[in-house]
Amino acid sequence: MPYGTVNADSLVSSDGGVISPNINSLRNRIINGAMVIDQRNAGASITVNSNSGTQFAADRFLVQGTSSEGVFTAQQLSATPPTGFKNYVRVQTTTASASPASGSLYAMSQIIEGFNIADLGFGAAGASTVTFSFWIRSSLTGTFSGSLKNGNAYNRSYPFTYTINSANTWEYKTVTVAGDTSGTWQTGNLGGLIVYWDLGCGSSLLSTANSWQGGNYNGVTGSTRLISTLNATLDITGVQLEKGSVATSFDYRPYGTELALCQRYFRKTNGGVNTEPTLYAYGDGSQVIGQSWIFPVPMRVSPTTTTSGSLAIGNGGSPTILVSPDSYFLYVMPSGGGTVYYQPNGSYRISFSAEL
């Protein structure tokens, strides 16, 4: 279990297993596996359908629904997690599709950056075995599926199955996979390895189980499709992918460490009055007025930015935002002499995304 006691040597779980002797460990290659960070939604439900674009149920957990035949919601919850956890993500079908079209995509996934799987040696002789584990609960029972896949190329896949035995009951699942000795696997700042839960993909995205294959597959042919049952639910937490053939105790990192790992890929300003970004300065109308802010952690690449809410601006035009992986600079050209200011009103937020 993730919570435990501290001694002089290491952090130890309640069942006696070592969680992590180093709070900065990445034994678990999954980031935010306990679903504790949700910067985008703050626990609000999101709707996933053909018009939803790229969405995240919680930080680092991508949810996709590329066909409006079926629609589902996704939400970080805390009502009834398994023992030792605080949060989980629930997906729930709101429009059922009995028979999704061949290329329809319904899935939840996480893309692991190449830097964080480089030591596994995938794509060459001697590739390391990995073990994928998670806690799951569903209103449905039966054989479900998912896959491991190479990022960027999307042409090497290992579809797998797991069985949910009892409805509405938390169950612990493990999948052990021999490392792939073929294909191209990124080891830098691009997508290295993707883990998928199939929520009801079409036939062209499904294949047979338990072997590495040349193709883009998210699950196994004939497995249970959550998207085909109205109001069906699937809850997930405690997600871990680690080197080796044995699933060990969940690597529960401190909240601040987990947040920092998430902020390499996404960050949102705090919002509210007198919060970042706020600037008061005197301008004579001939000089740009601006200020820079350093990101809490360097982002994976220079992020894209989006804004929401309103920004009060005095004596100047709309601000311009310049970004790098380390910081951003917000500036405005004064419209005349006097005090120039920009100040968030209520819910004004800037989002920075460097997602894979």
What is the number of helical segments per DSSP (H or I, 4+ residues)? 1
Fourth-tier CATH superfamily name of the largest domain: Galactose-binding domain-like
Largest sheet: 7 strands, antiparallel
CATH topology of the largest domain: Jelly Rolls
Total domain modules: 2
Number of strands: 25
Separation of termini?
Answer: 30 Å
Over the alpha carbons, how many angstroms does the gyration radius reach?
22 Å
Short recap of the structure:
The protein is about 5% helix and about 45% strand. With about 350 residues, it is mainly beta. The strands form six sheets. The chain has a seven-stranded antiparallel beta sheet with strand order 5-6-9-14-11-12-16, with no helix packed on it.
Describe the structure.
The structure is a single chain. The protein is an all-beta fold and 356 residues long. It has two domains: 260 residues, Sandwich (Jelly Rolls), CATH 2.60.120; 87 residues, Immunoglobulin-like (Sandwich), CATH 2.60.40. It is 3% helix and 44% strand. It is built from one helix and 25 strands. Strands 5-6-9-14-11-12-16 form a seven-stranded antiparallel sheet, with no helix packed on it. The chain has a six-stranded antiparallel sheet with strand order 4-7-8-18-10-13, with no helix packed on it. Strands 19, 20, 22 and 25 form a four-stranded antiparallel sheet that branches. β23 and β24 form a beta hairpin. The radius of gyration is 22 Å and the shape is globular. The N terminus is likely disordered.
